[in-house]
Design brief:
Elements: E1 2-6, E2 17-22, E3 29-30, E4 35-40, E5 45-49, E6 54-59, E7 66-67, E8 72-78, H1 86-89, H2 106-114, H3 133-141, E9 169-173, E10 176-180, H4 185-200, E11 203-211, H5 213-230, H6 237-250, E12 256-259, E13 262-265, E14 271-273, E15 275-277, E16 280-282, E17 285-286, H7 294-310, H8 315-318, E18 323-327, E19 346-350, E20 353-360, E21 363-377, H9 383-398, H10 401-404
Parallel strand pairs: 14-18, 18-19
Antiparallel strand pairs: 1-8, 2-4, 2-7, 3-6, 4-5, 6-8, 9-10, 11-21, 12-13, 14-17, 15-16, 19-21, 20-21
Helix pairs in contact: 6-7, 6-9
């Protein structure tokens, strides 16, 4: 029975998707719920699974095509799939990584022929020694030798096979290579939103520094007991989320945003946590942070970090937010100016902790210090409020008992 594989229903905030990668080729047997194709939206990558056991008969939407709700992606034939035996296939028990008989796809074959490369000279990194495009490209990027010099790629290079992820187009001038590849939908969205934030908001940044001594002492004292009790590590981020919630409740305009000529004030605190993923920066939301304790916040942040790395964040995870926290310190940043995450009115930037000399009670002492930055929209937030908001966070972090006693 033939079944049309269609684009799943997209959320209202997502108009279309791009075909990112086909995981199955026409004629290939597929098990129920195996991922057939990845669709890239402005926010996440959606997987389209097989509805049953069967065979992918044909593909109607190629890599790079723009698709919308209910567009047909492929035709699928549902049927019972039996695993082929070695006798039936004549396949050797194991393929050698350097064998001239190593398997590779049509796109790889085109690259090999185009650059006159012997497949036996390439170590395949795919299953059973299968040669992938990445293996060929890695060989091309090595310094040219007398035996193998990559030729210039013609201006009309063959299109990538529709079952393969897009591969950068290589061009060469002598022994120097350049590659060209399209910007991902997520990166395009990030770029558009950041430029829009700078062009449509009156963004300013105020800075302060915070002494991390008390938090580090508290964390070192209770981290093992905390982990045993709550099955979660005690990090610094939960302290900054709780400190932000306390400050947002004191300065509600920083938790608001502009909508036309109106100001929308939220009576809840949905805190976005900027997380690095293989596809770029994403901002999942810790919802109703004002109602959650340290353990709940830490577990949620850890979950988002894992799903971001796995590429399995959902659109719901990334939708909304009233305030954002970003931590460039994990990458070594000492000081930076974070850019607003529209339509939010403010974003808090954390930075690296450094042992620095500071004046304390008339003496110079060495303390673990962190610079904080608050970027804010001056259209809705005055400088006085922004500075006081950041000072409130500083006070809570330097004396974390204030958070426990609900002192603002």
């Amino acid at each position: 029975m033939s079944i049309e594989i269609k684009v799943p229903a997209l959320p209202e905030s997502v108009a279309d998707a791009t075909v990112l990668e086909w995981h199955k080729a026409p004629g290939e047997p597929v098990k129920r719920d195996e991922n057939l194709v990845d669709l890239e939206t402005d926010k996440v990558v959606l997987e389209v699974p097989a509805p049953a056991d069967g065979i992918l008969e044909s593909i109607t939407a190629n890599v790079g095509d723009l698709v919308t709700d209910e567009d047909v992606l492929a035709v699928f034939v549902a049927q019972t799939i039996e695993a082929p035996t070695e006798a039936a296939t004549g396949a050797a028990p194991e393929a050698s990584n350097n064998s001239t008989d190593a398997a590779y796809g049509l796109a790889v074959e085109k690259l090999l022929n185009q650059h006159s490369i012997d497949p036996a000279s390439i170590r395949g990194t795919g299953n059973d020694g299968r040669i992938l495009k990445e293996d060929v490209l890695a060989k091309l990027e090595k310094p040219a030798t007398a035996e193998s010099t990559p030729a210039a790629v013609p201006s009309q290079a063959p299109a990538p096979a529709q079952t393969e992820k897009f591969t950068p187009v290589l061009t060469s001038t002598g022994d120097r290579l350049e590659s060209r590849e399209p910007i991902s939908r997520l990166r395009q969205t990030i770029a558009r939103r950041l430029v829009n934030a700078q062009q449509t908001t009156a963004m300013l940044t105020t800075f302060n520094e915070v002494d991390m001594t008390e938090i580090m002492s508290l964390r070192n004292k209770y981290k093992e007991e905390f982990e045993k009790t709550h099955d979660s590590k005690l990090g610094f981020m939960a302290f900054f989320v709780k400190a932000s919630v306390a400050a947002l409740q004191r300065f509600p305009l920083i938790n608001a945003h502009i909508d036309g000529t109106d100001v929308i004030k939220a009576n809840y605190n949905d805190i976005g946590i900027a997380v690095s993923s293989p596809r770029g920066l994403v901002v999942p939301i810790v919802r109703d942070a004002q109602l959650k304790n340290f353990a709940q916040i830490e577990r949620e942040i850890r979950h988002y970090g894992q799903t971001a790395l796995a590429g399995t964040l959902s659109l719901d995870d990334l939708t909304g937010g009233t305030f954002t926290i970003t931590n460039g310190g994990v990458f070594g940043s000492l000081l930076s100016t974070p850019i607003l995450n529209p339509p939010q009115s403010a974003i808090l930037g954390m930075h690296a902790i450094q042992q620095r000399p500071v004046a304390l009670n008339g003496e110079v002492v060495i303390r673990p210090m962190m610079y904080l930055a608050l970027s804010y929209d001056h259209r809705i937030v005055d400088g006085k409020e922004a500075v006081q908001f950041l000072v409130s966070i500083k006070n809570s972090v330097e004396d974390p008992t204030r958070l426990l006693l609900d002192l603002k």
